[in-house]
Structure formats: C-alpha cells, structure tokens
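User: Let's play a game. I give you a shape written as tokens, and you guess the letters that built it. Ready? Here's round one.
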C-alpha cells in the first residue's frame, strides 16, 4: 500500500484539496487535485489528475444543504472508492494564523485545536474556515494524524525591529505586531531558488506573490527578513479587493464621520477596495487588462497596483541593503506579462533590466545583463504543506520508536 496525504485549503464557501503519494526517499508526488465550490449553496465538485485531465465532477442543488461537512464526507468516500493500492496516512491543513507561538507546522491534538481557536480574533475572516475541516476530520477519522501548516510561520525569522509597530509596548506583548502571510508560498520559492541560480539561494531576493491576495517578501539566505503584510492580511500592497497599506486615520474617519459600523468598515477594506474598489469594475486582473485601453478607471487601478509594488520593492531593497534577485509568482505574477513589465520599468535604478522577449514567454529568467536578475517562478503552496505534513509525521513516528 502506498501511504497518501490529503492537503486541505478551506475558505468560506470553497474547499481546495490535493492528494499526494508518499514514496520512500522522494518528494511527495501529486496524484489528484480538486475543488468544492459554492459550499452552503449550489455546490460543485471537480477532481483532476495531476496531469490536468478532468477525472470526475458533481453538482448539488442549493436546497441540498451541502457544506464543508458534506464535502469532506464526500471526499473521504470518493477516495475510498478510487484509491486502489493507497492508504490515507495523514491530512495537512493550511492555517492562516499561527500567532506568536507557532513557528513551525504542528501535529494537531486537543490542546492545539484550543490554541488555534484562541487565534481567531487575529484572523476572523480566515481562521474559522481553516479550523472547521480540522474539527470535522477529527470527528470523522479519529486517530488520523492531522498537521496544521501556517502562513505566518515562515516570517518568524524576522528581527524584533522588523516585526515591531511603534505602538505602546503592552500592545506588542498582547500580540499586536507584524506577522506577515503567504509564508507557504515564500517557503516554496526559497526551496527552489538554487535550481534557478545558486547565487539566489544565498543572496538578497525579493519575492512578489501577486494573486488575489498580494504581498512581497525580502529573503536573505533563503530566510524572511521583512514582508509587506503586517498584523492582518490587509497591509502592504493593494490586492483584488483589499486596500493594502492605508493611513490608520482613514479608519477613524470612516467610523466617526462616515458613521460606518466596524463591520461595515471591515467589509469596505477587505471586500470592496483594491483593484475592485479603484476600478469599480472587477477584482480580476484579466478583466481589467481587457478593458484598460478604453476604460480610464481600469487603467487607474492597474497603474496604482504597479506603482505600489514598485514603491514597496524599493522599501525592501533598503531593508536588504541591496538586491540580487526579484521573483514574480502567483496568478498575476506568473501570468500577467504587462504587470511584470510595468514593475520592472520602475526598477532600472536598482540595476534591473527587462528582457522583453523572455518576459513575453514567461521566463523563467526575464532580465538581461550581469546585475540583479528577475525571474518568473510558479509557486506551490500545497507541495509545501505536503512536505511539512510528512516531516511532522516522520518525526512523530521517530519519537514514538525511540
Ligand atoms: P488566489 O490568491 O485566489 O490564489 P491567484 O494566485 O489564483 O489568486 O491569482 C488570481 C489573479 O491572477 C486574478 O487577478 C487573475 O486575473 C490573475 N490571473 C490569472 N491568470 C492570468 C493571466 N493569464 N493574465 C493576467 N492575470 C491573470
């Protein structure tokens, strides 16, 4: 029997999953990947082979009350029916917030569940959705090892100063500090830098994770030294629907003068801002690009996005004391030729020179010359969760055996 891992990434109405074979002395190998969408409404399930061909799909009507619980029950029985020669060995979960104490992935038990629940106030829009599948799987598959893998953990290497807000010290002691997110993505990129150029693995590299959520991370010797996201996933770059860094005074103005409730202000900042808010059209870069030549609002949103990325890269170059490499990743970073060109055009002062034809075909190297290099590297957060889950599993088994 080949032991397999399930990797789960749960959102409010979606559940993404991947299934990996764990072969001896080899990277976890992707077998299937899939998605449940529209949970709680008209749900839809699709599963594909690692090679990309559709394998199965199913839909449910909105009256059928098909939520996360039903999706996980369906996934377990689908796998039982199709897993010829395989046996489920563990489940790895993406958990957005590990707070101050979780600097590495952890095997879940009762006390860990409690500790992760206590972190809900730090990420109220994401953490509860991440924890729900953990609770459901503990009930449905008691004894099955489950591992929580954190978006924040990769940034725990940052210095005290890099993670400090200039707020009264008791606030820091109460957990109000910069945490940083997208750590699973940065972990993956750091792990493959040497395959692209060994100098990058030991150098000063800025990674631009540009998807619906967006942030930058400064890596020195493959370790996070600074990032643009802070206490919450709102800080830093403008995103699909999130505002990025704004003056905190705006929030008081919204509450006091505009009479928004805290929930309304939160909804403006998380769900109605960013590319969507500025354009008034869409949070989707593809849509905005298709309109940008004729629609000034679409162009403005894109221009602001590129301007803010360039400015924040400048700030991270200062934090690193220079730059040896720049990496673009995630949906926009991997696919949007124009965003890469616009950002690079603002970085000639840092010695970065665009190779336009390489950029058009997606690199991997998209710069010319002997100065700092620029790259397009596809990220793989699920593989990092699979690697981390396996390593926690192996060290637990080793402890039990000794
Ligand atoms: P998430 O944070 O939800 O995982 P993704 O990493 O999938 O997001 O990124 C989604 C973004 O990537 C969207 O703005 C989408 O328009 C953009 N994107 C995806 N493919 C392309 C493409 N071919 N050209 C331009 N933008 C793209």
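Assistant: Ready! My guess for every position:
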């Amino acid at each position: 029997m080949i032991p397999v891992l399930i990797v789960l990434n749960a959102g409010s109405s979606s559940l993404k999953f991947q299934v990996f074979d764990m072969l001896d002395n080899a990277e976890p190998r992707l077998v299937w990947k899939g998605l449940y969408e529209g949970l709680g409404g008209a749900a839809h399930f699709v599963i594909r082979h690692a090679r990309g061909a559709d394998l199965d799909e199913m839909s449910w009507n909105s009256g059928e009350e098909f939520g996360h619980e039903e999706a996980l029950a369906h996934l377990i029985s689908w796998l039982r029916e199709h897993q010829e020669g395989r046996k489920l060995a563990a489940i790895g979960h993406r958990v957005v917030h590990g707070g101050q104490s979780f600097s590495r992935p952890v095997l879940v038990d009762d006390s860990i569940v409690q500790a992760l629940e206590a972190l809900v106030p730090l990420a109220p829009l994401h953490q509860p959705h991440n924890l729900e599948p953990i609770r459901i799987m503990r009930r449905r598959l008691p004894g099955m090892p489950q591992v929580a893998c954190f978006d924040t953990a990769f940034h725990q290497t940052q210095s005290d100063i890099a993670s400090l807000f200039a707020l009264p010290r008791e606030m820091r002691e109460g957990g109000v500090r910069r945490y940083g997110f997208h750590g699973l993505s940065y972990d993956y990129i750091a792990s493959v830098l040497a395959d692209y150029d060994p100098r990058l693995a030991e150098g000063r590299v800025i990674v631009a994770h540009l998807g619906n959520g967006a942030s930058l991370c400064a890596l020195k010797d493959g370790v996070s030294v600074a990032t643009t996201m802070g206490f919450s996933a709102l800080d830093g770059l403008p995103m699909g629907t999130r505002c990025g860094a704004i003056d905190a005074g705006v929030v008081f103005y919204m509450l006091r003068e505009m009479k928004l409730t805290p929930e309304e202000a939160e909804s403006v900042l998380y769900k109605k801002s960013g590319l969507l808010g500025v354009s008034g059209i869409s949070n989707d870069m593809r849509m905005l690009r298709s309109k940008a030549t004729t629609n000034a609002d679409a162009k403005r949103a894109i221009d602001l996005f590129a301007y803010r990325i360039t400015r924040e890269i400048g700030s991270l170059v200062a934090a690193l004391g220079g730059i040896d490499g720049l990496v673009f990743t995630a949906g926009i970073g991997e696919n949007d030729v124009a965003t890469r060109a616009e950002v690079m055009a603002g970085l000639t002062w840092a010695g970065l020179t665009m190779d336009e034809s390489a950029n058009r075909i997606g690199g991997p190297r998209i710069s010319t010359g002997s100065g700092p290099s620029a790259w397009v590297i596809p990220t793989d957060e699920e593989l990092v969760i699979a690697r981390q889950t396996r390593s926690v599993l192996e060290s637990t088994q080793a402890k039990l055996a000794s």
